[in-house]
Design goal:
Distance between the termini: 46 Å
Number of helices: 2
Largest sheet: 5 strands, antiparallel
Number of domains: 1
Structural class: alpha+beta
CATH topology: HIT family, subunit A
Shape: globular
Strand content: 15-25%
CATH architecture: 2-Layer Sandwich
Order of helices and strands: HEEEHEE
Number of strands: 5
Helix content: 10-25%
């Protein structure tokens, strides 16, 4: 566990976070800088820098992460849908190099910037 990793310190209980759920190998916390009315982060307990570092041995961990994301979304303000996203690298918007999923909902979410206009409703 890198001592300079905020998410490793949160998982270890050395830094405070509002924990909203746990599953095997993962923990869900409220994002302190929410981008939507409902914004939870699902962190891996194991330090994995990003999705680029995943391999076959992480299949069970990913299943647990998505299962926990679904559980916290069902308990949150996401009745009409939610988004699950992960960022990879600084150009991809990853601020903390520790694998985590963003679970966002509670309002109409915009389209991810693809350079293309959103589809007609």
């Amino acid at each position: 566990m890198p001592s300079d990793c905020l998410f490793c310190r949160i998982v270890a209980g050395d830094d405070h976070a509002e924990v909203v759920g746990r599953d095997e190998g993962v923990v869900a916390i409220r994002d302190i800088f929410p981008r939507a009315p409902f914004h939870v982060l699902v962190l891996t307990e194991q330090h994995i820098p990003s999705a680029d570092d995943l391999d076959d041995e992480h299949a069970g961990l990913l299943n647990a992460a998505f299962r926990l994301a679904r559980t916290v979304a069902a308990e949150g303000d996401t009745a009409d849908g939610y988004r699950i996203a992960t960022n990879v690298g600084s150009l991809g918007g990853q601020a903390i190099p520790h694998l985590h999923l963003h679970v966002l909902g509670g309002r109409q979410l915009g389209h991810i910037d693809s350079g293309e206009p959103p589809p007609a409703a």
